[in-house]
Fold this protein.
Amino acid sequence: MRIFSGIQPTGRKHLGNYIGAITQYVAGQDRGDPAIYCIVDLHAITVPYDPSELRERLYDTTAILLAAGLDPARCVLFRQGDVEEHTELCWLLAGVTAFGDLNRMHQFKEKAAGQRELVSAGLFLYPVLQAADVLAYKADEVPVGEDQRQHIELMRDIAARFNARFGEILVVPEGRYPEVGARIMDLQDPAVKMSTTGGSEQGTVFVLDEPKAIEKKIKSAVTDSGSEVRRAEEKPGISNLIEVLAAVRGAASADIEAEFAESGYGAFKAAVAEEVADYLAPVRVRYEELRGDEAALEATLRGGAEKARAMAVPTLAEVRAAMGVGPAG
Ligand code: ATP
Ligand code: MG
């Protein structure tokens, strides 16, 4: 079972990333052979950014992932830009990707709408690079949050179309979505997902927030005017907090509802606030220990890139040969 997933470089990883993706990465280390995790600097350049900041944020994310429990001895952790096979495969796969499919991607539409100066072609091609990330490793499984479902479907279509045209070379991967917490919503606007680039500051709990800040954000989460702690379509704020607590405890949402059936919103929010703060505190402490040693972070990434390249190079050789690119092998 090969597992692959990618995450964007930022120091502002949030509770949605943590619950939806990072905890799955940590668990994947026991099932993956190997489990491969990539910090996607090449994806981050599709929206405005500062080049010197990018490297800093990449180290931030590396340290967050290690603090959360990724162990370079049990997984392959690397930086996307270190393995050039990703970009080459992106171009090769662009030849079997339908323009119309890319045009239908929700993430492109949402992120394009948020750009003031330039909607880059990179933003449009983002899902093809993402497909290349996964397909280069012939990964079977891709742990992601619910927002990535459409991109996973697209990469499955790309792999299938490639195989139909050039022979059975690529593995058609499966998305893996957590049962609880696959889509954590913004605390101030529970109609939109908690997000790194969109979303509100007050509605986003960052992994590196101080416990006090976390408690304040959760206690001031927007909820409806009712008083019952239960999941319902007309109660998106409370439903979201139920899901958050269930995910943090590793419990079922129904158990949370039963436990808080007699409490009001105030007591419930206070409990969620305290438990989320306790849940993230050790990660922040470990992060502080790791982040200062950039040489060690760089060495970890370099070691990961070597292992990653050893897997991606043979796939690219097969793909190039099948497509008739370059000299005959
Ligand atoms: P952006 O909003 O800029 O795309 P992001 O918050 O989605 O940033 P990514 O690095 O793109 O961050 O996503 C990393 C992983 O976190 C992906 O697997 C994604 O599906 C997951 N994820 C992102 N937001 C949420 C959320 N609100 N709930 C659960 N999982 C999420
Ligand atoms: Mg995202």
Observations:
- The longest strand covers residues 3-7.
- Residues 229 and 261 are 6 Å apart (CA to CA).
